[in-house]
Every structure is written in structure tokens, then in C-alpha cells.
Amino acid sequence: MENQELKSQWHIVMIVYGLYALGILTGGLFALVGVIIAHLKSGQVDGVIQSHLSYQIRTFWYGIIGAIVGVLTMIVGIGFLILFAVVVWQLIRIIKGFLRANERSPIDDPNTLLF
């Protein structure tokens, strides 16, 4: 049985994953809200919850870097391919994180660039 505070923290993690998913459809607007929430909560938790928040924060910032590279390389014709790869990468990380959070399992390596 989870206590109320832990349950609330898990809800926040799940909400951030949901905001990230919506962010893909809204050009990142909802993802921006999600990363702000993740940053605000990051120092207040530890353990399994922290692994998810770190993973979420890195997903956002690595995604931004990938999107910038994609936009800058449109002039040479590979930008759309890079942007597509970034969206697929983000979706995989969002789905993986959501499933792990649903199981109340940690992210094995929240610092990874991969999945």
C-alpha cells in the first residue's frame, strides 16, 4: 500500500509523461510545461521517482537539441529525416518511461541518451 505522498509523486511522473506525449502533437508546448514540473519536483524526491524525473528532463533537453539540429540541417535536405528520428526517439522514451512508471519500476539508467 502506497502512502498518499508517494501516490501523488507517481501521479506527477505520469502527468509529465502525458504532457510530453501531448507535446509531440503541439510543437512542444505541453512538453515545456512538463519539463518545468519535472525540474520543480526533481530536488524534492529520491530513488525511483527521481530516476523518472531525471529521465524526463533529459528526454526534453536532448529532444530540443535534436530538433534544433533538424531545423538547421533542413537547408542540406536531411532536416526532416532528423526531425522524424527525434520524434520516434521521444515516443520510445515516453512509452518506455510510462510503462516503467506504471509498474512502479525505476529507469535503469536515467542519464542514457538511448532508451
Automatic annotation (TrEMBL):
Location in the cell: Membrane
Listed transmembrane segments: 12-40, 60-92
Keywords, sorted A to Z: Membrane, Transmembrane, Transmembrane helix
Presence of keyword Protein transport: no
Membrane topology, from the record: Multi-pass membrane protein
Keyword Membrane included in the entry's annotation: yes
Name the record gives this protein: DUF4870 domain-containing protein
Organism: Kordiimonas sediminis
